[in-house]
Design brief:
Blueprint (H helix, E strand, L loop, with lengths): L3 H6 L5 E4 L3 H11 L4 E4 L4 H5 L3 E6 L2 E6 L3 E4 L5 E5 L7 H9 L2
Parallel strand pairs: 1-2
Antiparallel strand pairs: 3-4, 5-6
Length: 101
């Protein structure tokens, strides 16, 4: 896994967003030893603005949730790249490959 210092050298700040409460996110961050900031968006306001809150299906059940999508946003606030094709295990490499191409 790419460590935080390497992302910093590339000028990348990583932020995650979740509909969970700050308390739940703090426990998750500690349990998984995340190396990035995870922000709470309990009312889905930010997720909806980015178009990542919507209908999902799992095991035949339909519900609303966050679609796992990542955005690379430049220093001016413009979306430079949208990453939709990745797995949790290779996400860092997909982004790194894009940044170093």
């Amino acid at each position: 896994m790419i460590v935080r210092q390497n992302w910093k050298k590339l000028g990348v700040v990583i932020l995650g967003i979740s509909p969970d409460s700050p308390e739940k996110l703090a426990k998750f961050t500690d349990k998984k030893a995340l190396n990035f900031l995870l922000l709470a968006d309990q009312d889905h306001q930010v997720a909806e603005q980015f178009g990542v809150w919507g209908e999902k299906t799992f095991l035949g059940k339909t519900y609303h949730g966050i679609h796992r999508i990542s955005f690379l946003i430049d220093e001016k606030g413009k979306i430079e790249q949208v990453f939709t094709q990745f797995k949790t295990s290779n996400h860092h490499q997909v982004v790194l490959d894009y940044l170093t191409k």
